[in-house]
């Protein structure tokens, strides 16, 4: 039982990191119909920004804010500078995927050229460990879970109650009709990429915090897990991404407790392939 | 072509005559090759569709006319996007008095509505802003005759009665003539003839242009 | 030349050969057939591992420090053949991802993920293929008889590699420059239309996956025989991206482009970095940045690559007497019913687009189908053709029930349709568009393609002759070598009609074929269609151009609001009040 609880705890942390990442990814897909595979690269770039701030003497949580800002700027630049020109030209979705892979190489290896190939980690204390009947998490891990809950709630408030959020949902549902309502969809798209980019930067930082040490290519495997959560919930569905993150996060960690830990990401992979084969619209998406 | 406040101007014609294309060009969805569009004194030629909407033109497209994953209430609220927040609730109530059937399905997703209900929602969305001009692209397409007739005689006519200018493209020629103040007949991308419904009904060339007459080829 | 320089050149040539073979396989999948296989590297890895475990002795023989399955110490060339077979077999499970109607980018991502995961699994499960350490001490081919370190052996290895590369080139060229290759390219350009013309998409995609997989497997075997080790680090998904970059830059869809790309990117990059001095990690990183940059820049500026796909020019005409394709009509008072719909309905959600429609189409007639917008005409046509399933009711063709039959099978039985919107194969010439529709061409299968030009030349020439005749009748003979995507709207409509005629239909379903066509030409087409009916073909035509209906169609069926309203000649229909009402009222 305590093994289960311990892995449940880890599952919550993974789910927390995954939720922040998956929601950002899916929002980008929702408004622009692009599978931005460079998302992982931007995540790690954010983690490095936080690292630099941290190295300069500030707390890593301040670095988190810097990472959010960096992620927002980088994502908007990526969409405006790269994806939008290709889309305006009528490029096929597969071309955009290949372009995003190219951007991944540029960002990740450009980063590695600057920071070098050795892994780094943040200078921070993990805080006291809280134990409860087998469940064992550090204070930092609690903070991560809390941060994820707050961010998901914020996204919920944004989408449900704010004008921008409603405009985002309208733009994602039917861009032309949104324009007919007077919504300046170009600005909405930019705002969406900025917000999701901030989430991306934050996700990269908490990912790096949780993992301990990281390098420029550390997010490559994690992107698979993000995709699994996104497709489980349905590409473009923010609440689906949250639900998918919880399910995948718990499933991978709990299964890791009972089978070899090195295979835990395989669970994510199997889920992803199954969703693509059976129900590409995801659990919350509309039936085809 | 002109649409006057308080009047219904209809555009009819055989298929392929360019009716939908005309509306799409007027509302900024596609680009015009030449010509001008004026709203009152203001030249709105070539403006993107969100600016056309902001200028005060409400457009109901033929397809993709609602936000499918959003609820009925959210669809209406989206129509009121440009309104200050406090006014939205009142406007929604006002639209619901015009389309009382929608009141029972406020929390239903728009994708689950029947054809007639969906069209009412589409029109309700545009009604939220109370624009000066309504442009309707074949609003009765795919509707049962009784609902189509109700839509035209009650709702479309009411828009003009409230003072707006209504420009409506329709396939149901007889039905739309019954509610129109002025009608344009399009063929091969040009205006073939125009006039009041009474004038056109009396013109034998009118029926010709629909059934077998050679339309003016481009 | 020093021996170091000699070994350097040998090294270069062998890597070039390996990359050429791999890129040719990828070019066949991606460039020709439009299958974006991001999991490609798995096939090379499967081949390398297979060659290794077939040629390695039992685990104990080498001190037992690595664990793996197999170990049968088989002699050359068995491991290489096994590798090619393994590469092909591994490809089969992937067809489930590319066969169904999954969005291209989703399927590609699925394949990418599979490559990542396969690497992870092999790395972590040590007993299978020795995990992260991989397999080493892999015997070089014939190392019992010869000294693999000698220059003579290495030159021989190089020659064998290059010969195999040349053979691979000839193989993929043979497949691509055949009617089958043309069908692959048609599938790439517009898979929905290719399906409606009778092409089996699933089997074509499976075939290119297996063929490309076999080539990839062979390339893996050659590589592992040379470097004598193989580990997961050699086949991450980054390696797939390099191969994609090679194919894109060299020129997708052009096999010479694939060769060029293989030389420029994997090989060229390695060599270029040799001469750039700097901290080794930095040079590697910049290499990857450069590859990413090249991918984006090329896709933006020159997506067709350095060597773009060549235009296939039509062979010059030879005169052959035209064989009559369809049996001429025996004049009887009432010809038999060849196509019928019985109580057919179709719902889209809560909207009933077609309601309880029953029609009969008789042989040799040019039947018109008219009605106002939203009447359900195109929906009915789609159900007759099989591109849309019925909600209820039956479709009968030539006396048999075809309700459950998919579109491509109906097309093969002679029930062919055209589409309303643009559906020509843009990157095929007009002549190729026409030829792609021919139903019985011996070269239109993988087997036929592999048997070579002599096998299918007869069918191809006969088909080309029919195509030339049609081109002349429709006035487009001068455009035979123009890419269909470059034609005007009206011309593309004509290509669509001609292509449907090339499919040797018994019953032809035309969806607004005359939209945007000049009235004079529309008249000529009407005459031609009538002529075909006199020869025994049956045509059902949805149209709005009522003058054409007047002149050529008998009977004409009127639909309104999803139901059949009336049937008769146009003169009869005009006299009926309810028809006039339907058009004016809707």
Written description of the protein model:
The complex is a heterotrimer of chains A (288), B (218) and C (586). Chain A has eleven helices and four strands, in the order ααααβββααααβααα. With 288 residues, chain A is mainly alpha-helical. Chain B has helices at 19-26, 49-55, 72-79, 85-98, 115-127, 145-161, 173-179, 197-201, 204-208; strands spanning 8-12, 38-39, 42-43, 57-60, 133-137, 165-169, 182-187, 190-195. Mean pLDDT of chain B is 85; it is low at 212-218. With 586 residues, chain C is an alpha/beta fold. Chain C has 23 helices and ten strands. Classes of the chains: A mainly alpha (288), B alpha/beta (218), C alpha/beta (586). Chains in contact: A-B, A-C, B-C. Chain A binds chain B through residues 163, 166-167, 169-170, 173-174, 176-185, 286, and chain B through 27-29, 48-50, 53-54, 58-59, 61, 64-70, 74, 77-79, 81-82, 85, 111, 125, 129.
- Number of E strands of chain A: 4
The chain pair forming the largest interface, with residue counts per chain, is: A-C, 43 and 44 residues
Q: State the order of secondary-structure elements of chain A, H for helix, E for strand.
A: HHHHEEEHHHHEHHH
Note the main sheet of chain C: 6 strands, mixed
Report how far apart the termini of chain A are.
Answer: 41 Å
The amount of beta strand of chain C, in percent, is 5-15%
Q: How is the largest sheet of chain C built, in terms of strand order?
A: 6-7-8-3-9-10
Attribute tags:
heterotrimer, A: 288 residues, mainly alpha, ABC transporter involved in vitamin B12 uptake, BtuC, two-stranded antiparallel ribbon, 4% strand, C: 586 residues, 4-stranded antiparallel sheet, 10 strands, elongated
Write the layout of secondary structure elements.
The complex is a heterotrimer of chains A (about 290), B (about 220) and C (about 575).
Chain A: H1 2-32, H2 39-55, H3 60-88, H4 93-115, E1 120-121, E2 129-132, E3 135-138, H5 139-161, H6 163-173, H7 175-180, H8 185-211, E4 213-214, H9 219-233, H10 238-258, H11 264-278
Antiparallel strand pairs in A: 1-4, 2-3
Chain B: E1 8-12, H1 19-26, E2 38-39, E3 42-43, H2 49-55, E4 57-60, H3 72-79, H4 85-98, H5 115-127, E5 133-137, H6 145-161, E6 165-169, H7 173-179, E7 182-187, E8 190-195, H8 197-201, H9 204-208
Parallel strand pairs in B: 1-6, 1-7, 4-5, 5-6
Antiparallel strand pairs in B: 2-3, 7-8
Helix pairs in contact in B: 3-5, 6-7
Chain C: H1 3-32, H2 40-55, H3 78-91, H4 95-99, H5 104-124, H6 126-129, H7 151-176, H8 179-189, H9 191-196, H10 201-227, H11 237-250, H12 255-274, H13 280-301, E1 337-348, E2 351-362, E3 366-370, H14 377-385, E4 392-397, E5 400-401, H15 407-412, E6 415-417, H16 430-436, H17 446-451, H18 453-474, H19 489-502, E7 507-511, H20 519-534, E8 538-542, H21 546-552, E9 556-560, E10 563-568, H22 570-575, H23 577-585
Parallel strand pairs in C: 3-8, 3-9, 6-7, 7-8
Antiparallel strand pairs in C: 1-2, 1-4, 4-5, 9-10
Helix pairs in contact in C: 1-7, 1-10, 1-11, 1-12, 2-3, 2-10, 3-10, 8-16, 11-12, 11-13, 12-13, 16-19
């Amino acid at each position: 039982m305590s093994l289960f609880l311990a892995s449940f705890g880890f599952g919550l942390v993974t789910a927390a990191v995954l939720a922040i990442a998956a929601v950002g990814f899916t929002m980008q897909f929702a408004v622009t119909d692009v599978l931005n595979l460079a998302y992982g690269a931007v995540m790690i770039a954010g983690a490095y920004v936080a690292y630099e701030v941290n190295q300069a003497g500030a707390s890593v949580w301040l670095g988190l804010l810097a990472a959010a800002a960096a992620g927002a700027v980088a994502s908007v630049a990526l969409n405006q500078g790269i994806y939008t020109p290709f889309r305006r030209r009528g490029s096929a979705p597969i071309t955009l995927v290949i372009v995003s892979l190219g951007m991944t190489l540029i960002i990740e290896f450009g980063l590695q050229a600057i920071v070098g190939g050795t892994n780094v980690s943040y200078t921070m204390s993990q805080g006291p460990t809280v134990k409860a009947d087998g469940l064992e998490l550090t204070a930092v891990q609690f903070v991560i879970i809390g941060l994820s809950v707050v961010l998901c709630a914020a996204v919920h408030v944004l989408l449900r109650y704010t004008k921008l959020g409603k405009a985002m949902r309208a733009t994602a549902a039917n861009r032309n009709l949104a324009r007919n309502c007077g919504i300046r969809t170009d600005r909405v798209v930019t705002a969406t990429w900025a917000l999701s980019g901030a989430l991306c930067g934050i996700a990269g930082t908490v990912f790096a915090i949780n993992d301990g040490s990281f390098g420029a290519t550390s997010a490559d495997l994690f992107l698979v897990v993000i995709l699994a959560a996104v497709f489980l919930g349905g590409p473009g569905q923010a609440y689906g991404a949250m639900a998918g993150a919880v399910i995948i996060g718990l499933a991978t960690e709990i299964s890791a407790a009972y089978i070899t830990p090195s295979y835990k990401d395989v669970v994510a992979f199997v889920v992803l392939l199954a969703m693509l084969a059976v129900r590409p619209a995801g659990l919350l998406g509309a039936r085809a | 072509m002109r649409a006057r406040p308080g009047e219904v101007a209809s555009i009819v014609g055989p298929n392929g005559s360019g009716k939908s294309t005309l509306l799409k060009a007027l509302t900024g969805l596609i680009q015009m090759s030449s010509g001008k569009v004026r709203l009152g004194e203001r030249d709105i030629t070539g403006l993107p569709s969100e600016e056309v909407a902001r200028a005060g033109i409400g457009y109901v497209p033929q397809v993709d006319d609602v936000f499918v994953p959003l609820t009925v209430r959210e669809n209406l609220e989206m129509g009121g996007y440009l309104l200050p927040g406090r006014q939205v609730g009142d406007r929604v109530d006002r639209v619901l008095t015009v389309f009382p059937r929608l009141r029972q399905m406020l929390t239903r997703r728009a994708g689950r509505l029947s054809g007639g209900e969906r069209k009412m929602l589409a029109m309700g969305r545009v009604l939220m802003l109370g624009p000066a001009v309504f442009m309707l692209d074949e609003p009765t397409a795919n509707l049962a005759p009784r609902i189509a007739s109700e839509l035209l005689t009650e709702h479309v006519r009411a828009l003009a009665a409230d003072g707006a200018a209504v420009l409506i493209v329709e396939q149901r020629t007889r039905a739309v003539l019954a509610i129109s103040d002025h009608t344009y007949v399009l063929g091969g991308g040009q205006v073939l003839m125009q006039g009041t419904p009474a004038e056109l009904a009396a013109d034998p060339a009118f029926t010709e242009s629909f059934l077998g007459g050679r339309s003016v080829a481009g | 030349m020093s021996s170091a320089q000699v070994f350097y050149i040998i090294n270069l040539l062998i890597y070039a050969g390996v990359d050429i073979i791999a890129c040719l396989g990828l070019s066949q999948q991606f460039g020709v057939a439009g299958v974006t296989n991001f999991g490609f590297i798995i096939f090379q890895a499967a081949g390398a591992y297979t060659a290794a475990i077939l040629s390695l002795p039992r685990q104990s023989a080498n001190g037992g420090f690595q664990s793996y399955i197999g170990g049968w110490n088989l002699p050359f060339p068995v491991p290489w053949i096994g590798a090619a077979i393994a590469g092909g077999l591994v490809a089969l499970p992937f067809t489930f991802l590319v066969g169904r109607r999954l969005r291209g980018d989703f399927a590609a991502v699925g394949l990418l993920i599979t490559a990542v995961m396969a690497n992870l699994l092999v790395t972590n499960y040590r007993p299978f293929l020795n995990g992260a350490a991989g397999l080493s001490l892999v015997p070089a081919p014939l190392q019992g008889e010869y000294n693999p370190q000698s220059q003579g052996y290495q030159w021989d290895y190089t020659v064998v590699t290059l010969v195999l590369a040349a053979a691979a080139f000839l193989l993929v060229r043979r497949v691509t420059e055949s009617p089958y290759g043309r069908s692959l390219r048609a599938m790439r350009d517009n898979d929905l239309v290719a399906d409606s013309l009778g092409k089996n998409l699933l089997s074509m995609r499976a075939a290119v996956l297996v063929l490309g997989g076999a080539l990839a497997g062979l390339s893996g075997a050659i590589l592992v025989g040379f470097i004598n080790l193989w580990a997961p680090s050699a086949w991450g998904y980054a390696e797939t991206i390099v191969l994609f970059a090679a194919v894109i830059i060299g020129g997708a869809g052009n096999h010479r482009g694939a060769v060029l790309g293989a030389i420029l990117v994997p090989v060229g990059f390695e060599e270029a970095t040799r001469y750039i001095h700097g901290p080794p990690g930095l040079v590697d990183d910049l290499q990857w940045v450069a590859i990413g940059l090249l991918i984006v820049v090329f896709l933006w500026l020159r997506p067709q690559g350095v060597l773009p796909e060549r235009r296939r020019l039509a062979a010059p005409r030879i005169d052959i007497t035209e064989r009559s394709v369809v049996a001429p009509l025996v004049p009887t008072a009432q010809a038999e019913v060849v196509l019928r719909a019985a109580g057919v309905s179709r719902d889209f959600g809560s909207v009933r687009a077609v309601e309880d429609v029953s029609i009969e189409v008789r042989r040799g007639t040019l039947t018109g189908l008219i009605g106002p917008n939203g009447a359900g005409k195109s929906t009915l046509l789609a159900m007759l053709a099989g591109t849309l399933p019925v909600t209820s009711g039956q479709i009968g063709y030539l006396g048999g029930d075809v309700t459950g039959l998919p579109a491509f099978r109906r097309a093969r039985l002679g029930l062919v349709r055209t589409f309303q919107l643009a559906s020509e194969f843009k990157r095929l010439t007009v002549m190729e568009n026409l030829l792609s529709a021919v139903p019985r061409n011996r070269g239109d299968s993988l087997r036929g393609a592999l048997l070579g030009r002599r096998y299918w030349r007869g069918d191809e020439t006969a088909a080309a002759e029919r195509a030339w005749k049609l081109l002349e009748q429709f006035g487009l003979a001068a455009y035979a070598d123009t890419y269909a995507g470059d034609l005007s709207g009206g011309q593309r409509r004509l290509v669509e009609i001609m292509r449907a005629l090339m499919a040797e239909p018994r019953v032809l379903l035309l969806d607004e074929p005359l939209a945007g066509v000049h009235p004079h030409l529309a008249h000529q087409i009407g005459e031609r269609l009538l002529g075909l009916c006199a020869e025994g073909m049956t045509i059902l035509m949805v149209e709005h151009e009522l003058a054409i209906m007047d002149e050529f169609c008998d009977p004409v069926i009127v639909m309104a609001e999803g139901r059949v309203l009336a049937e008769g000649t146009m003169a009869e229909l005009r006299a009926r009040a309810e028809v006039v009402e339907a058009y004016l009222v809707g």
